[in-house]
Amino acid sequence: MKSDNLLKDSTILFFITIIAGGFNLLYQLFMVRNLDPVDFGVLNILLSLLIVTSGPANILQTVTAKFIASYKANNNWNKISLFLRVFSKKTLIFGFALFLFFLIFREKIAVFFKIKNNHLIITSGLMMILSTILPFNLGGLQGLQKFKGLGAALIINAGLRLLLGIMLVNFGLQVDGAWGAVILGSIIALLFSFALLKRYFVGPEKDAADFSDRKLDFKAIYKFALPILVALPSFSLLTNMDIILVKHFFSPLEAGYYSIAQMAGKMIFFLPGAVTIVMFPKTSENYARNKNTTHILKKCLMIIGLLCFSASVFCIMFPELVIKALSGKVYLECIPLIAPFAISMSFFALINAFLFYHLSINNLKFIYIFVVAMLMQAIGIILFHESLLQVLHILMGCSILLFIINSLSLRRIVRV
Predict the structure, then answer these.
(1) pLDDT per residue as tens, the chain (416 positions)
(2) In degrees to the nearest 10, what's the CA dihedral of 299, 301, 302, 307?
(3) CA 377 to CA 373: how far, in whole Å?
(4) What are the C-alpha distances in Å from 75 to residues 32, 78, 209, 281?
């Protein structure tokens, strides 16, 4: 029965990823076709900022899912309630701090990224609050094994982003409408997730048999969160800092062309995402049982490699077709950028599998590799950015080097 549930839950999460990812892809395709390159470049930097700054909240989702699940397994409903109440407050405080940062430094942020409208920076601050609380709620649903509710929240968020984005942009709101759809979709998904979790926030403390049921082991929680707190943001910066720095160092039009070409690379990167999601619990379970884990990783890498290689070959052979399919037009300036984007994002997709594999087997030494790679890439782009191709060559070099290092690190893993 337990294995059947594992298979069932993995299948649900797999299709959730496909559906939600499909909505997000359609949103990107619609925007790149209906916004001019400058406006799309602005939208892309806002989305990249959202991904980078919401990294700690996504970490909290992983931590929340783990500890809520362990409490549920032992029927510690008081701890579930206490965890939700305590960390929802901490999450809200963190999100509000980010909002104040964006509000106070809105003019400097707008100048740095060459964004004319300061209100986009202010609404980005509002989005920071939403993007910290929503992952926390999703982690609660995941830990409680409310997979249908989790899936519904993800699909509501992505589906409304697409539907409202189409409506608002067609009403003539352009980048304001595209960004507004992101905010509205998150608000509705957040309210929906709160409705599902409402009864778990109030635990039966008066019925607790032991006072320890009303205490949390904060040391264990923070000890588990620390390596994730370093690893995931580092990897997020590796795959998103280029667009942030390009928006700063290059003209709005050049940044727009870069954003359009980046769409092809990001499609390749997200294509095998569901494979990693399925791999993570399997390697975690095998590690806990002292069973072989590397064979699962190798199968995962083979599938990801095949998917990314096939997509990359197509993009490299038919760059004009890819650009036209994405934007509706053939921007000649984007064509030379397709190949290095495809190659670098293919390697980053493989590295993503390594990242979650290391987390699943508690191999904490790998963290420093990602931090160093992130710093090297940032320094490289800051020092050498004479052209968009030069930026991409740095991106590609870092991705290949990081893949080689992670591949060699497998030989040093004791538990296999």
Answers:
(1) 444 454 566 567 667 877 887 898 889 889 988 988 888 888 888 887 787 766 667 778 778 877 787 777 677 888 888 899 988 888 889 889 989 988 898 888 888 888 888 888 889 888 888 888 998 998 888 778 787 888 899 899 999 999 999 999 999 888 999 999 999 999 999 999 999 998 888 765 544 444 445 577 787 778 777 777 788 778 888 888 898 899 888 888 888 889 888 888 888 888 777 677 667 656 766 776 677 878 888 888 988 899 899 999 999 999 889 888 877 777 888 899 999 999 999 999 999 989 888 877 777 777 788 889 999 999 999 999 999 999 999 999 999 999 999 888 776 654 44
(2) 130
(3) 6
(4) 49, 9, 12, 21
How far apart CA 157 and CA 17 sit, in angstroms, is 12
pTM of the model: 0.68
Beta-carbon contacts of residue 342 (< 8 Å; ≥ 6 apart): 264, 265, 268, 311, 312, 315, 316
Between 218-249 and 367-383, two packed helices, what is the crossing angle to 10 degrees? 20
